[in-house]
Amino acid sequence: MPEADRIIVIPDQLSKARESLGLGRKEVAETLRIDEKKLEEWERGVSEPPLEALWDLAELYQRSTDYFLRTLPALPERLNFRLKHHRVLKDLPHAVRKVIVRFEELCRAEFELEEALQRKREILIKRSSCECAPEELAERERRRLGLGENPIRDVRNLIASQGVRVFVLPIPDVSPIELSGISWWHEEYGPCMLINGRNNAGRRSFTIAHEYVHLLCNDSPTACAYMLEIPEERFANRFATVFLMPARAMRDLFLKIIGPPGSLPTDQALGRLARHFGVSLEAAGRRLEELGLIPEGTTDSRIADWEKRPTRFRAPRGPKWRRQLGEDFVSLALSAYSAGHLSASKLARYFGLDLRDVLEVVRQARSARSE
């Protein structure tokens, strides 16, 4: 092999990237039409892949090529799958594993861009054993954040302001209710959270609060179906309920727009209340039941119709890719590109756009700054 075609890679990174997608060497070799023994030699460090092969591996593994050039942490080895039908990473559909890898790559990218621009992320949340009740913890967090009884208008930005990396990506091939979110406290990147973008806005808000308490309580890395009835998930659900829908505020608004306790709300009135707190109709209905404001069983009797007509939230501005990544990440990446820390091709990869579209985004950002 000519010296110019040799790349010094970290062999372990090749195997980490393959294993994070649950791929076997034979499957990779057949997909890329390379010799399986040669792939094994690259992973063992016996030989090094040529540049063209490295590009092919990076594309297949959903990684940037620099992932292979230095030692980086792997996906959490003990990622707990609190799901109804899937228990381990290799059992998840390949399309789902690709989203998890993209999420990890985005967390890594954000961390490295912050370092390049010398913008150290301040992590304000503190991990603890969470020995108190979920209701007490939720009320304590609301006090710490200065929320009072007010609704949380943008729970994603609130949690991100506490140092959590939050990305909202559509997770295909599984029920969006079954896989609602993933969270872990990365040894290098800090607290990270992936929210299933296929869920409606109200359910996403609930999932963010749910995953937030997993991070607060120092729970092990977890992929959650928050409807699953196990102790850790019940704790997280209770926290999210009280955190997003304080009892006094719920009662006050119920009396104002629906009527005295026991009144049966119309879907329109319940939708108005749900929108006020940024939650789904189901979450609002169950909270009202437990507070004794509507008859028990109301939610279960009407949930089928609600699923057909989900709560409508005001559509956020901007293209979908931008909402998925979040304004903080987009702004950070554009700043890094302007400062010469990031190539246009890598920017396009982060944004999930082709090169022409990403250059137009750069042009628009520069024009906005000049105005």
Report on the structure:
By secondary structure, the protein is of the alpha/beta class. It contains 17 helices and 5 strands. It has helices at 11-20, 25-32, 36-44, 51-61, 94-116, 134-144, 155-160, 201-216, 231-244, 247-257, 267-277, 281-290, 298-308, 320-325, 327-338, 344-351, 355-370; strands spanning 80-82, 165-169, 181-186, 190-196, 222-224. It has a 5-stranded mixed β-sheet with strand order 1-5-3-4-2, sandwiched between helices. The protein starts with 10 loop residues before the first helix and ends with a helix. Residues 1-5 have low confidence and may be disordered.
State the order of secondary-structure elements, H for helix, E for strand.
HHHHEHHHEEEHEHHHHHHHHH
Give the N-to-C terminal Cα separation: 53 Å
- Major β-sheet, in short? 5 strands, mixed
Low-confidence stretches: 1-5
Mean pLDDT rating? 87
Which strand order spans the largest sheet, edge to edge or round the barrel? 1-5-3-4-2
Radius of gyration: 23 Å
Fraction of residues in β-strands? 5-15%
- Number of strand elements: 5
Number of helices: 17
Structural class designation: alpha/beta
Shape: elongated
